[in-house]
Amino acid sequence: MPAKHDGDAVAAQLEAAEGGGAIAIGPHRLEVTNLDKALWPARSRKRALTKRDLLVYLARVSPHLLAHLKGRPVFVTRFPHGIDGKSFYQKVWEDPPPFVKTVRIWSSDNDAERDYLLCDNLATLIWLGQLASLELHAWFSRVTAGNDTRGLGASFGRSEATLDRSRLNYPDFIVFDLDPYEYSGKEKPGDEPELHRRAFNRTRALALELREIGQSLGLETFVKTSGRTGLHLYLPIRRRLTFDEARAAAETIGRHLAQRRPTEVTLEWAVKKRRGKIFFDYNQNVRGKSLAAPYSPRRHAAGTVAMPITWDELETVYPTDYTMLTAPGVLAERGDPWADILESKGDLHAALAGAGALERPRRGA
User: Does 246 reside within a domain?
Assistant: First the structure.
């Protein structure tokens, strides 16, 4: 049997609670409310998923989820009235509880330093769930030091120039967001494409091709379901490239794929030009942008999560296989396939520099 962890004890308290109350999370106490409020409405023969389901899920997967959030500024999408209600992003925090860690980062939009949240402990994770933070997004860079941060600054809030020279401007990953724009035919006018198997199968094939490109460079790529319609691929890299350089490298790879498969892959920003193709989104490789964090719940009617998987699993999986109700059991059975992602970093700078691929491609090239 898998070893017990602190999240299991918290999950047991949440399952035993009635409508709410104070729960113990290590040395901290947190008031939870409206535990039976539906956040994902019932559909077909499946019951609604409640705030209790969300908090229990976060507690159960916390050892893995927190490992992927550690040291990374986090922002959330909050859905106070569930996935069918209005939502809003929250990036900065004025007065969080004392167990919540924050980091001061220079904000270009405000021309000042602001407090960003670090979700480094279980109490913070459950507190975010209590606030109906259904989706968790983490930066691709970290405030923490490592053997690849020599010479990089540890001050993030003094000025734009200081932030540019800091660890937060050097990502741990290049990310590829593969988003199919092949419609099922059941969507309403103006709707985004819905999840369906034909489009997902095409996205799976493109992901495998991307993996081969990484392997040809001597680099390892990791894959997860987005929890929506597509796939997220993470290429762990040593912190030698700035975000601008990482984005340029991702664009180079995307344009290469679009040239090889012009009828299947597009980098077009205009939605109407993506129709029938897989949108290769390299623009996530910007400081402060993010994808749904590994194991984050998603705004999908089935209560799906962004699920790290093995490449063997990719051959047969479908995004709705992994929900808040099923993912904890899968993790308990086979563990986290991304557990060593930061130990698998390659030197993309060395791999691409010789070919001049770190220069931003010319438009129309």
Answer: yes
Residue 323 bridge partners (DSSP): 304
Condensed to tens digits (0 to 9), the pLDDT of residues 250-294 reads 999 999 999 999 999 999 999 999 999 999 999 999 999 999 999
The answer for residues whose C-beta is within 8 angstroms of residue 150's C-beta and 6 or more apart is none
* Cross-strand pairs, 107: 112
The CB density around residue 141, as the number of other CB atoms within 10 Å, is 24
pLDDT digits (tens, 9 = 90+) for 289-323: 999 999 999 999 999 999 999 999 999 999 999 99
Would 353 be classed as within a structural domain?
Answer: yes
| Domain that residue 318 falls in | 171-365
Residue with tokens 């691709």: 140
* Number of neighbours of residue 44 by Cβ within 10 angstroms: 6
Provide the residue type at 81 as one letter.
H
- pLDDT score recorded for residue 363: 39
| Contact criterion met (CB below 8 Å) for 35 and 52 | yes
What percentage of the chain exceeds 90 in pLDDT? 89
**CATH number of the domain bearing residue 231:** 3.90.920.10
Q: Is 85 helix (H, G, I), strand (E, B) or coil?
A: coil
Look at residue 354 in the predicted model and tell me its pLDDT. 52
pLDDT at residue 358, as a whole number: 40
Q: 10 Å Cβ neighbour count for 346?
A: 17
User: What distance in Å separates the CA atoms of residue 64 and residue 346, rounded to the nearest whole number?
Assistant: 22
Q: What does the alpha-carbon distance between residue 303 and residue 322 come to, in Å, rounded to a whole number?
A: 8
| Pair type for strands 49-50 and 73-78 | unpaired
pLDDT on residue 359: 45
Inside any domain, residue 238? yes
DSSP output for 157-217: SS-HHHHHTBGGGS-SEEEEEEEE----S-PPTTPPPPP-HHHHHHHHHHHHHHHHHHHHT
Q: How many CA atoms lie within 13 A of 232 on its CB side?
A: 28
Task: Confirm whether 347 is domain-assigned.
Answer: yes
Number of domains in the chain: 1
